[in-house]
Amino acid sequence: MFGPTTDVPALSLVIPVYNAADLLPDTLAAVDHFLTHAPRRVEVLFVDDCSSEVETQIVLEDFTRRRDDVRVLRNACNRGKGYSVTRGMLAARGRYRVFTDVDLAYPLDQVHRIVDELARGADVAIACRVLPESRYLMSPTFFHYLYTRHLMSRAFNRVVQAFLLPGILDTQAGLKGFTAAAAELCFGRSTIPGFGFDIECLYIAQRHGLTIKQTAVNFRYDDEPTTVRFARDTSRMLQDIWQVRTNAWRGQYAVATTRFEFPAEDRWIPGIHTPPHGIPVRGSGGQEVRRSGTANDLGTPRLPEVVPG
């Protein structure tokens, strides 16, 4: 494992995970190959969003024990993809930090395209599926799905461009990269724990004058699928757009936020751990309870302590 002051990796790859036992064997094999053949020093951070599947935890733990360039951070409770990605990007140590989805819809060789753009001077590089050079790989049985999703995605993007991000053609692609400084700036100000975090981080980057490069990629659909189903989640995404606008009007993106609390030891402790998160809950008597103490490797927290309210 990289030490706290030496051997800083060139690249950090962040992968959020939630109940992905069926996906992990192929994903971990791809990650293992990527790390073995990487021309530069790389670290990988899996952020487990408190998976209820024991298999997911076991598979990740076993993989981490076999590779000292991989870490697992486990959220003490289910917080959402945005929270998990934010935690990973801020815990990462690489000069370049890239996040992608656990299904690897964007094969890991596409990470090099993102990193190359960052190395050429971009502060942020994002996959853009609608560029002419981008390529789909999918089963013919999903063509109808692709057509429907494309139309809905384009409609949503028009709204995003009109209200927040003019000129950004694809805000929801699950492959994005940031320089270390850009990651600290953008994710240090994020407030949205769900799927709208992409839009918020890109808005923060644009608002602070960072360079955003849209990059053609190859991507695939192996299964019908997707975590975000636009028909069901459109209302929530529109709420997120409104939240970003409201936060901007209030000046919340001018300085780093304390909306999300992450344990300080995220940065340096190797291996698998579930550190304290300071997540407030209510006790039976109405007192505020704040979970404290480091959990063990199996994710069992110590008893909470009562905070006088």
Just give the CATH class of the largest domain: Alpha Beta
How many strand segments? 13
String of helices and strands: EHEHEHEHEEHEHHEEHEEEE
Main sheet overview: 8 strands, mixed
> In CATH terms, what is the fold-level topology of the largest domain?
Spore Coat Polysaccharide Biosynthesis Protein SpsA, Chain A
Number of helices: 8
Oligomer description: single chain
Rg estimate, integer Å: 19 Å
Count of the separate structural domains: 2
Instruction: Catalogue the unreliable spans.
Output: 1-5, 272-309
Instruction: Give me the secondary-structure category.
Output: alpha/beta
Overall mean pLDDT: 81
Say which CATH homologous superfamily of the largest domain is assigned: Spore Coat Polysaccharide Biosynthesis Protein SpsA, Chain A
Q: Please give the order of strands in the largest beta sheet.
A: 8-5-7-4-1-2-3-10
Helix content: 25-40%
* Shape by Cα distribution: globular
Instruction: Identify the CATH architecture of the largest domain.
Output: Alpha-Beta Complex
Distance between the termini: 41 Å
Give the amount of beta strand, in percent: 15-25%
Report on the architecture of this protein:
- It is a single chain.
- The chain is α/β, with parallel strands linked by helices.
- It folds into two domains: 11-275, Spore Coat Polysaccharide Biosynthesis Protein SpsA, Chain A (Alpha-Beta Complex), CATH 3.90.550; 276-309, no CATH class.
- It has eight helices and 13 strands.
- An eight-stranded mixed beta sheet has the order 8-5-7-4-1-2-3-10, sandwiched between helices. The protein has a three-stranded antiparallel beta sheet with strand order 11-12-13, with no helix packed on it.
- Strand 11 and strand 12 (288-290) form a beta hairpin.
- The longest helix has 21 residues, at 143-163.
- Mean pLDDT is 81; it is low at 1-5 and 272-309.
